[in-house]
Write a structure and sequence with these properties.
Blueprint (H helix, E strand, L loop, with lengths): L1 E4 L4 H12 L5 E4 L12 H6 L7 E4 L2 E4 L1 H11 L10 H17 L6 H7 L3 H23 L11 H15 L8 H10 L3 H5 L15
Parallel strand pairs: 1-2
Antiparallel strand pairs: 1-3, 3-4
Main location: cytoplasm
Cofactor: glutathione
Pfam families: GST_C_3, GST_N_2
């Protein structure tokens, strides 16, 4: 497999965690979203992913984009350890939380949107993340065990950790979100989350390395 990734992309991080958890080794091709006006806009990368976004994963003779589609494919082809619970209700909760983050928070504060916001980008990102986290904190109070849904790591957790990192980068006050904070801390102790961390990627700038 070949993963096209950017060290700081939260969507790429989700996929890196999934690959690490499932023990799938891969080659990483960095796509710098800032350098050269954004390497994702090159003709070469557009041919690979017409949406001009990371991540993209070449695997088993196909190229997949969209982090949750990639994670679902890895789940179906490498079922262990599972990232979707066997119980239908819990599985629905995992998908709900993953979608809440992947559709309801992250796209509103991603690089392409922030570019449009100009000087107000920090304020905008904080507003989007805060409103999403207020809802998420409430949801997690009903679903969480050690992790987002019960005590097993799931696709929801793969979305949570990168989004908390975004919140910290945009200086969101995490005080009102004790459940999110607790789960995030527990997940960051797991090896798969450590090795996939933005501070430990081949394309991480020296000053941001762990």
């Amino acid at each position: 497999p070949i993963l096209y990734s950017y060290f700081r992309s939260s969507c790429s991080w989700r996929v890196r965690i999934a690959l690490a958890l499932k023990g799938i080794s891969y080659d990483l091709v960095p796509v710098n979203l800032i350098k050269d006006g954004g390497q994702q806009f090159s003709g070469e990368f557009k041919a690979l992913n017409p949406m001009q976004q990371v991540p993209a994963l070449k695997i088993d003779g196909i190229t997949l984009s969209q982090s949750l589609a990639i994670i679902n494919y890895l789940e179906e082809t490498h079922p262990n350890p599972r990232l979707l619970p066997q119980d239908a209700k819990k599985r629905a909760q995992v998908r709900m939380i993953a979608d809440h983050i992947a559709s309801g928070i992250q796209p509103l504060q991603n690089l392409s949107v922030l570019k449009q916001m100009g000087e107000k980008k920090m304020e905008w990102a904080q507003k989007c993340i805060t409103s999403g986290f207020q809802a998420l904190e409430q949801i997690l109070q009903h679903t969480a065990g050690r992790y987002c849904v019960g005590d097993e790591v799931s696709m929801a957790d793969l979305c949570l950790v990168p989004q908390v990192a975004n919140a910290e980068r945009f200086k969101v006050d995490m005080g009102p979100y004790p459940t999110i904070t607790r789960i995030n801390k527990a997940l960051l102790e797991l090896e798969a989350f450590k090795i996939s961390h933005p501070s430990r990627q081949p394309d991480t700038p020296a000053e941001l390395r762990a």
